[in-house]
Amino acid sequence: MKRVVIPVSGGIDSTVILHWAASEQQEIHAVSFNYGQRHFDKEMSCASLSCKELAKSHKQIDLGFFKDIVDTSSLINHDIDVAKARDVVGDPQTVNYVPNRNMMMLSICTAYAESIEASVVYHGAALVDSQAGFWDGSKEFLTAINNVNKLNRRHRVEIAAPLIQKSKKEIIEMGGNVGVDYMNTWTCYEGKDHACGECTACSSRIQGFLDAKLIDPVPYAREI
Hints:
By secondary structure, this protein is of the alpha/beta class. The chain has helices at residues 12-23, 40-54, 66-69, 101-115, 127-131, 139-149, 168-177, 200-211, and strands at 3-7, 27-34, 57-62, 120-122, 158-160.
């Protein structure tokens, strides 16, 4: 059985990968991170539900120090408003970007994979990440970090991104085929009781469901 490590945020992309890997009969070791993000509680509630059902193990790793060294992201710094989709058209890298987050998390996941002799870490990058200005969700980043991992002299772990060329519509449809309950996913950066429906993450999610001609079961603070 193929042993894999999956960073699971509780969002659509990582949840779809989790269910897909389970459908492929892979042995899943999930990892979730608290880096001080304002929507952590919402994310973790969803991640825990999915991982309890599908993963052999689920580690929750505290990266609380990160908010002490990074203060430029709206996800961590509550003095910065979360960017709304309508306000960032053409912005190459919005305030919702968290500096080097994926590099840090994937490095930790790779170390964990090496220690348990897993062969792959699944990175939840999707096509929309590159389009939104997240360089650490791009194909170029994936190639570069795998080139670094190839320097390992004994146990080389591949970082794979099965969704990296898929639209949100395609990902949502894929999730439907492997049994994802989208009520148990969280996307909004605000982290309030209801999704805001206006941030860049909500915008991408809403458009994906519209394109897939499906109803998003998650409640929103505004009429969609």
